[in-house]
Design goal:
Length: about 450
C-alpha cells in the first residue's frame, strides 16, 4: 500500500529517478551484501549504468549519487554541501569507505561505466552493481531499477510483480481502491472527501498527530527550498551556462507586489516554481512531488494559494493529501518515470496532482477534484522528455512554471464546469500510459531527440 510519504519524499536534486534512486540502490546493495555475509571480503566495487541512467547520467548526477550511496548517504538526510565534499574527497583520493564495510580503492573512471548502448528490457533505468574479492572473484552482483520518483526495485521484484501489485493503490488500508472510480465510490458511500480517505488510510500507519506533523514537515521542506531558490543567484552547474532567474524576478515583483494583478498571478506562480527547480538543478534539497524534475509545481501552487495571510497549515494538509491520492493512482496504474512515460509522467502528473489539490482547497466535491486532476493531465498528454545536455534545466525549469499555471487553470475549469465530463481520470491515466509506451525512446529521458539535439550546447 502506498503512503503519502512515498509520493512526497525529501531528497536532493537534480533527479529523483537518476539521483535519489541510484543513491538508494547503491546503499541497499551494500546492505544486502552485508546481510549475505560477503561485504567484509570486498576489495573492489563496480557500478554499471544502463539505458537512460547512462545516457543522461552525467547531467543528472547519477555518477555522483551512486558514489554517495556507496558511502552510505541517504537522500532524505543528505546535506548537499557535505555530500559534495565527500564525493570530491573520494574522487581525489580514489578511496571509498563502503557503507557498513571496508575501505577500498575506487577509481570512478575504471570502476563505473555508463553504457548507453545497453537497452534494458525490464525498465529503462537499469543499474548493476558487483563486488569483487581481493583475488578478483565476483562475490556479489545484483541488478536494480530506479522506477521514478525515487522508487527502486530489484530485478526480481520487477520481473514478476504480483498482478495485484500492478493496480492496487490501497489493498490493505481502511479504504481500499485501485482506481479513481473506486476512490469516488468510497467518497460517495462514506460521505468523505478524498483527503479524508487518504488521511484515514495513513492512520493505519501511525497516530494522526504524527501524520499531520510529517505533512507539515513536507511543506516546510518545500517552503525552505523556495526561499533558498529566491535568494540564490548565479549560474547553474553542468556547462550550459543557464543563469538562475528566480531571484531577479522575485526582486522585481517585490518592488510592486500588487501592481498589475491581472498579469502578475503568472509571475508569482512562475517565480516560486522556478526557484524550486533552479535549486533542484543545482543539486539542492527538494521534495519529490512526485519527482524532482517536476518538483516546482506543487510548492508553487501551495505557496501562492495557501499562504495568503501566513501559512494555512490546515489547507496545506488538505492539498497534500488530495494531491498524494491522485499521485498514487498514476504511480500504480501507469508510471511517474520520465524514462518510461516522457515528461507527461513527471510534469503532467505533478500538474494533475496540483490541480486536484487546489480544487480541494477551494472546496470542490470529490467529483470536481477528479475532474480537475483529469484536466491537469489531459493537456499534458504526449509531453516529451528531451533535456538539453542531459541536464534538468532546459526545458525543465520553465516547464514547471508553465505546469503550475496550467494546474490552476485546470482547477478553475473543473469548478466552473457542470457535473458531467466526458473524460474520466482513469481514462486519462490509461491514455498517458499507452502514449508513454508508444512514444519513441528518443523522447524518454535519453537526450537523443527533440530540444536535446536541436539546441546547440555552448
Ligand atoms: S523534460 Fe520533464 S521529465 Fe525530462 S528531465 Fe525535464 S522535467 Fe524531467
Amino acid at each position: 500500500m502506498l503512503s503519502v510519504f512515498d509520493i512526497f519524499k525529501i531528497g536532493i536534486g537534480p533527479s529523483s529517478s537518476h539521483t535519489v534512486g541510484p543513491m538508494r540502490i547503491a546503499r541497499r546493495f551494500l546492505e544486502e551484501a552485508k546481510a549475505a555475509g560477503v561485504l567484509d571480503r570486498a576489495a573492489r566495487v563496480r557500478v554499471d549504468l544502463h539505458g537512460s541512467l547512462a545516457l543522461t547520467g552525467v547531467g543528472h548526477g547519477t555518477d555522483k549519487a551512486s558514489v554517495l550511496g556507496l558511502l552510505g548517504f541517504e537522500p532524505d538526510r543528505t546535506d548537499p554541501d557535505k555530500a559534495e565534499k565527500a564525493f570530491e574527497t573520494a574522487r581525489a583520493q580514489k578511496r571509498l569507505a563502503l557503507h557498513g564495510g571496508p575501505e577500498i580503492d575506487f577509481d570512478p573512471k575504471a570502476d563505473m561505466e555508463l553504457l548507453g548502448n545497453v537497452v534494458p528490457t525490464v525498465h529503462p533505468n537499469e543499474m548493476r552493481l558487483t563486488l569483487y574479492a581481493g583475488n578478483g572473484a565476483d562475490i556479489f552482483s545484483q541488478v536494480y531499477y530506479s522506477v521514478g520518483g525515487g522508487f527502486i526495485a530489484s530485478e526480481k521484484q520487477l520481473a514478476a510483480p504480483a498482478q495485484d501489485d500492478l493496480i492496487a493503490v490501497a489493498r490493505e488500508g481502511r479504504h481500499q481502491f485501485a482506481s479513481a472510480t473506486e476512490l469516488l465510490a468510497i467518497a460517495r458511500e462514506k460521505n468523505l472527501s478524498i483527503h479524508e480517505i487518504i488521511l484515514e488510510n495513513e492512520d493505519d500507519h501511525r497516530p494522526r498527530a504524527e501524520t499531520e506533523a510529517m505533512l507539515d514537515g513536507v511543506w516546510f521542506a518545500m517552503r525552505d527550498c523556495i526561499e533558498r531558490g529566491l535568494a540564490t543567484r548565479g549560474e547553474l552547474p553542468g556547462g550550459l551556462k543557464v543563469k538562475r532567474r528566480a531571484p531577479s524576478l522575485y526582486a522585481k515583483l517585490q518592488e510592486a507586489p500588487l501592481a498589475n494583478e491581472r498579469e502578475q498571478l503568472f509571475d508569482w506562480l512562475n517565480v516560486y516554481a522556478m526557484a524550486v527547480n533552479e535549486e533542484n538543478a543545482a543539486g539542492g534539497r527538494v521534495v519529490t512531488a512526485p519527482t524532482n524534475g517536476a518538483a516546482g509545481i506543487i510548492p508553487s501552487v501551495l505557496k501562492h494559494y495557501c499562504c495568503v495571510d501566513g501559512e494555512n497549515l490546515a489547507q496545506i494538509r488538505v492539498f497534500l493529501l488530495t494531491a498524494a491520492g491522485i499521485g498514487m493512482l498514476y504511480k500504480q496504474r501507469a508510471s511517474i518515470s520520465g524514462a518510461e512515460m516522457g515528461c507527461q509522467g513527471e510534469v503532467g502528473v505533478a500538474c494533475s496532482m496540483a490541480a486536484g489539490g487546489l480544487a480541494a482547497v477551494w472546496g470542490a466535491r470529490p467529483e470536481q477534484v477528479e475532474h480537475a486532476a483529469e484536466i491537469g493531465m489531459e493537456h499534458n498528454l504526449g509531453l516529451t522528455c528531451d533535456p538539453v545536455g542531459g541536464l534538468v534545466q532546459i526545458p525543465c525549469i520553465e516547464r514547471n512554471a508553465i505546469g503550475a499555471v496550467k494546474a490552476v487553470n485546470a482547477a478553475r475549469l473543473a469548478l466552473r464546469a457542470s457535473d458531467e465530463h466526458k473524460v474520466s481520470l482513469d481514462q486519462v491515466i490509461e491514455t498517458m500510459r499507452q502514449t508513454g509506451i508508444d512514444m519513441s525512446r528518443k523522447y524518454k529521458e535519453t537526450s537523443e531527440g527533440g530540444l536535446a539535439v536541436n539546441v546547440v550546447e555552448c
